[in-house]
Design brief:
This protein is mainly α and about 675 residues long. The protein contains 26 helices and 5 strands. Helix 1 packs parallel to helix 6, helix 5 (about 95-125) packs antiparallel against helix 6 (about 125-135) and helix 18 packs antiparallel against helix 19 (about 435-460). Helix content is about 55%, strand content about 5%. The chain starts with 18 loop residues before the first helix and ends with a strand. Helix 24 (about 590-600) links the parallel strand 1 and strand 2 (about 605). The protein has helices at about 20-35, 45-60, 60-65, 85-95, 95-125, 125-135, 140-145, 150-170, 175-190, 200-210, 215-245, 260-270, 290-305, 315-320, 325-340, 345-370, 385-400, 410-425, 435-460, 470-490, 515-520, 540, 560-575, 590-600, 620-625, 645-650; strands at about 585, 605, 630-635, 655-660, 675-680.
């Protein structure tokens, strides 16, 4: 059936395809989910966000406000939409690493299906299968969708938004654009401004698909109004509600110094990443304690790439997302030659609009991600969907030229094979098994070139305009698929090794390129919930041989470290947590997150994620003591002199009940410098 004829106004669906195509797609999705969830139970989230998930799973006010603690006194330092599926999963299955990670596995399957639908309606079923295989095999997706991260929901939401945008273009109706805008808004709730990187592309694509003389310009304007309005409402609706509420009716907004949700969204998580201090009331993102190590790592990677603007093409990042760059670039060129000269023709309008949308989205993301310091590798997932779809176009275009009447055109698939093989060989240097990947690259390229050469001699027939047909042409098409898909697939198999599947702090597959730099930044042993023991990150994994770990899709629940458990017992003996009161108030989210995540008990926390946010003033803390609301305080003794908790406890002359050394607050997923604490009682 025709999949790109706008006259049909019936977008293609997978359940209308052949049985073997449906089976193949199912197999791709299932295998991708298996690879992603192989070590799901050994994963886990940074405890700051894990504790928020626990709070949101047990407290409706925390769920609705995206709060760090069950009593909803302070929000996360970002919009908490990404944590909503995690909180629902934890509410259903209990607190564990796997329960937090399960929604991301689902989001990965949704992303694979969404990309396959877009390419099915654009190029046909076989190209849709290639796009699905590329998506499921992209290394950054394999790691990212196996860990609780904001980027998972962002990626899935934008892929689904692209499906609804394409439906609007195919059917020439406006209502699917409302759903496209809704899913862009869901992406915004997951990772804020990064979701809007797709907006220029959707605007350009809508204009190409609908604009024209007379009434068509009015229709284009109406379609754009529907898209942009839905996007803004879905993106900013929650923030506007919070901003309009009285201060006493919403938790303090972390990431801001003046309790402003817009300072948190557009300052701390937006322009401050490029121009620190440019947004009034925003905490400086580049000075946050939790991001310090990641920033040093990002700078090291940029330096290793030779130039920051080329960081996405460095082996460090390209090995995670860029295996199909040659095929994607070939697809852009072949698609432009095929559709752009006829873009005003009805049959070519939607294909050319889809091409424009993907190219503009890719270019926008590449430019933005190249000029910013990447806090963690999962940011590069922002170009994964576009590369998968465009690489499928490259395969589709090259396969159609495998036996073109003009022998010069048959050089196109051969040239693509050579470029892909050379690119694979270069990227294989970052793998734990470079010899294997290089052999796969060279072997696949050589076999495909031989087949294409034989076909070139035997075939003089014209291209049919359909997907490859005949035994020889099917063989050539299959080898071209291998040349596009096998590289990332082989690299992603490293995720079967629990020591090489990445982590919540820096989702990536394989050994980090500059392990010594990362080791110096983190300089400690870390273990994640359910991993059953410490896991050495950095240099220690570089020398370890690749081994397939036993599957662990579920894992175990999170427990409190010994020192933190002693703290909870001491606080309860001293009266903390009675009659619905908080267990204690602390100026360290590291301790509070361990306690909340493991027990669900309320712990008041000052300082926010950055340590710079005055959730409570010293006067407020003293008033809480005088009113009898709070009497117990856990104070970091080597903290800032201006810290309100430290100031209040000093002014009140509080009595020290117990002191702890660096072991306290250094449970799973902690990165930063060790501190000593004192539990104090004020009266």
């Amino acid at each position: 059936m025709t999949t790109i004829d706008a006259a049909a106004e019936r977008p293609a669906r997978w359940w209308h395809q052949s049985r073997w195509e449906q089976t193949t797609l199912t197999l791709v999705v299932v295998l991708g989910a298996v690879l992603t969830s192989w070590n799901l139970g050994r994963g886990g989230d940074l405890s700051f966000y894990a504790s928020a998930v626990r709070s949101m799973s047990e407290s409706l006010p925390a769920f609705l406000s995206g709060s760090f603690d069950p009593d909803a006194t302070v929000t996360l330092d970002k919009l908490a939409g990404f944590a909503v599926p995690q909180a629902i999963s934890v509410h259903l299955f209990g607190m564990s690493a796997a329960a937090m990670g399960l929604p991301q596995v689902v989001e990965g399957a949704v992303t694979t299906l969404a990309v396959s639908v877009v390419v099915l309606r654009w190029l046909g079923a076989r190209a849709g299968l290639v796009a699905a295989a590329l998506t499921a095999a992209t290394p950054i997706f394999v790691s990212m969708f196996g860990h609780p991260m904001e980027d998972g929901l962002l990626t899935a939401a934008l892929a689904v938004a692209l499906v609804w945008w394409q439906r609007a273009a195919l059917t020439r109706t406006w209502w699917p654009l409302l759903l496209a805008g809704l899913f862009v808004g869901i992406g915004f709730q997951a990772k804020m401004l990064q979701a809007w990187l797709v907006l220029p592309a959707l605007v350009v694509g809508t204009l190409v698909a609908t604009a024209g003389p007379g009434p068509r310009w009015r229709r284009a304007a109406g379609h754009l109004a529907a898209l942009v309005s839905a996007t803004l409402v879905a993106s900013l609706g929650w923030s506007v509600v919070v901003a309009l509420l009285p201060t006493a009716d919403h938790p303090f907004v972390d990431g801001s110094t003046d309790d402003s949700v817009f300072a948190m969204v557009f300052g701390y998580n937006g322009v401050d990443r490029f121009l620190p201090g440019a947004w009034p009331g925003a905490v400086s993102a580049l000075r946050t304690a939790g991001d310090a190590a990641a920033d040093r790592w990002s700078l090291a990677v940029s330096h290793a790439a030779g130039h920051p603007l080329l960081q996405l093409f460095s082996p460090r990042y390209a090995s995670q997302v860029g295996w199909s760059w040659p095929a994607a670039l070939a697809g852009i060129v072949l698609g432009a030659f095929r559709w752009w000269p006829r873009r005003t023709v009805r049959e070519a309008r939607v294909p050319s609009a889809t091409l424009c949308t993907l190219v503009v989205w890719l270019a926008t993301a590449v430019v933005v991600l190249s000029v910013m310091h990447l806090p963690h590798t999962a940011y590069v997932a922002g170009i994964g969907v576009q590369l998968a779809a465009l690489a499928a176009l490259g395969w589709w275009g090259a396969a159609r030229l495998a036996d073109a009447p003009d022998r010069r055109l048959r050089l196109v698939p051969a040239g693509l094979l050579v470029l892909q093989g050379a690119w694979w060989t270069w990227l294989a240097r970052t793998s734990a098994e470079p010899a294997l990947l290089a052999t796969v690259a060279v072997g696949t390229t050589a076999a495909a070139l031989v087949v294409l050469a034989v076909r070139s001699r035997r075939s003089g027939s014209a291209a049919t305009g359909r997907a490859p047909g005949g035994a020889g042409r099917r063989t050539a098409g299959a080898l071209l698929v291998a040349a596009v898909v096998l590289g990332p697939a082989c690299f992603s198999l490293q995720a079967l090794d629990a020591a090489r599947d990445g982590d919540r702090g820096d989702a990536s597959v394989g050994v980090r390129q500059d392990a010594a730099t990362w080791d110096a930044a983190r300089s400690q042993r870390v273990s994640a919930p359910g991993r059953g023991g410490p896991r050495r990150v950095g240099q220690a994994t570089e020398d370890a041989p690749f081994t397939v770990s036993a599957p662990d899709p579920w894992g175990a629940g999170q427990g409190l470290p010994t020192a933190d458990a002693e703290l909870v017992r001491d606080a309860e003996r001293a009266g903390g947590g009675r009659d619905g009161a908080p267990l204690f108030l602390t100026d360290s989210w590291r301790v509070a997150s361990d306690v909340i995540g493991a027990t669900g008990k309320e712990v008041l926390t000052d300082g926010g994620f950055s340590g710079q946010v005055a959730v409570f003033s010293a006067a407020q803390i003293e008033s809480m003591v005088h009113s009898g609301r709070e009497r117990l305080f856990l104070v970091a003794r080597d903290g800032r002199a201006a810290d309100p908790v430290r100031q209040a406890t000093t002014a009140l002359g509080c009595r020290v009940l117990h002191r702890w050394g660096p072991a306290l607050g250094q449970g799973p997923s902690q990165w930063d410098a060790l501190q000593s604490f004192a539990l104090e009682r004020c009266s």
